[in-house]
Fold this protein.
Amino acid sequence: PQSNMDWLMTPEAHLASATNGRLFHNQNTAFSMTREKLLAFYPEDVRRKKIAARAAIMAQAGQYNLLRLIRREDKVAASLAFARFAEASISMAHLLNRRYTPFYKWGFYNMRTLPKLGGVIVPLLASLVRVPALIGEKPAAAVHEEAFQLTEEICAATAEELRVQALSYTPDSFLQGHISEIMEGIKDP
């Protein structure tokens, strides 16, 4: 990628494929030079844009819609909201670790290796994935409370890391409130 727009349009899983693992044979110096540039990670404006987008999805799908759908007792829609929240959480953890998120089937597995947030979010997502199946099996209020607690722990840990990295100073765990501060740091219009 040459420009910020190129970076935004390049599938992240392709960047992960080019940078994950060790290079055993380095006869092609053009590839190894490109790989070194990619290992430097996204330009900061691109990283911030992606982090803001993930915060928006986490807030909307997890902190807002998942809980509404549990109250409505809609297993399928709650499962879809969880999936969007989980995918955004996995991507967010990778972005905050300056690592490209691999192809979706490897994202959660790879998150276990991330020093920031991986150890916190992995067990929480592993518990939260069971919640949609509890709809109709347990009282809606109990399912809602379990989902709320797990979602809030994930978002609170994420918000804390946003503060640690000086991406946001908002004290709240509701991630929607962090987006404008994250975006303010972007210099490229």
Summary: Residues 44-72 form the longest helix (29 residues). The mean pLDDT is 95. DSSP finds ten helices and no strands in the chain.
